[in-house]
Amino acid sequence: EPEVTQTPSHQVTQMGQEVILRCVPISNHLYFYWYRQILGQKVEFLVSFYNNEISEKSEIFDDQFSVERPDGSNFTLKIRSTKLEDSAMYFCASRDGMNSPLHFGNGTRLTVT
Amino acid sequence: QKEVEQNSGPLSVPEGAIASLNCTYSDRGSQSFFWYRQYSGKSPELIMSIYSNGDKEDGRFTAQLNKASQYVSLLIRDSQPSDSATYLCAVESQAGTALIFGKGTTLSVSS
Fold first, then answer.
1. pLDDT tens for residues A37-72?
2. pLDDT tens-digit series, residues A7-27
3. Do the chains contact at A102 and B46, CB–CB below 8 Å?
4. Contact present, A24 and A75 (Cβ < 8 Å)
């Protein structure tokens, strides 16, 4: 069964550094998402992406965040200057149509020290 | 502000019993509803989707939707210890551009 692939599985970075989290969505999917989950808390929506542009973003997704689909397979989340409170599990997800279920990757655990 | 509310639990049931999980949502225009299961440290995995009022059954799982009451539920029959996890309710935004998740209900099934 096709999977959403995320790399790395764990990233440790220092406060103020830039990080890029990478995702390969399922190949025939058109809609891409980033969510985050702080330890012990809910899965929070960050951003949705379709047709090479952002469809919707949450209040969390401020100017420190950006997304990109640099080629036909990758989908990335960049955090420009990490803060301690950015420490969380970041999940990439994709789906083949609006109102279809999301398929999640295994996540990248980001630790900011 | 779109909200999805769930009782955080824990909900404890003995093996073989029925577990009932509930969810309410605020966006009256939502059209798609999903239940996910999340084991500790893992990503959410889809259990069921439901789009129309009424019941939808899949094996031991039954999802129920009542759009007038803005209420979604999940019943797990013959609960097994392996069902012990956090169950997440997710609701599509009216624009159809995001799934909004509740905080989840932790289920513990004792053998």
1. 999 999 999 999 999 999 999 999 999 999 999 888
2. 999 999 999 999 999 999 999
3. yes
4. yes
User: CB–CB of A104 and B32 under 8 A?
Assistant: no
For tokens 């935004």, the residue is B93
Q: How buried is residue B69: exposed, middle or buried, by Cβ count under 10 Å (0-12/13-18/19+)?
A: exposed
- Confirm or reject contact between B10 and chain A (CB < 8 A): no
- Any bridge partners for residue B66, and if so which? B71
Which positions in chain B touch A106 (Cβ < 8 Å)? 42-43
CB A99 to CB B43 under 8 A? no
The pLDDT value given to residue B2: 73
Give me the pLDDT at residue B96, please.
81
Contact status, residue B93 vs residue B27, Cβ threshold 8 Å: yes
**Is the predicted pLDDT of residue B1 greater than 70, yes or no?**
no
Find out whether A12 and A109 touch, Cβ atoms under 8 Å: no
* B39 in A contact zone (CB under 8 Å): no
CA dihedral A82, A84, A85, A91 (to 10 degrees): 60
Preceding amide of B44 cis, omega within 30: no
Q: Is B8 helix (H, G, I), strand (E, B) or coil?
A: coil
Whether the upstream peptide bond of residue A25 has omega within 30° of 0, thus cis, is no
pLDDT score for B71:
96
Tens digit of pLDDT for each residue in A75-92?
999 999 999 999 999 999
- Collapsing DSSP to helix, strand or coil, B83 comes out as helix
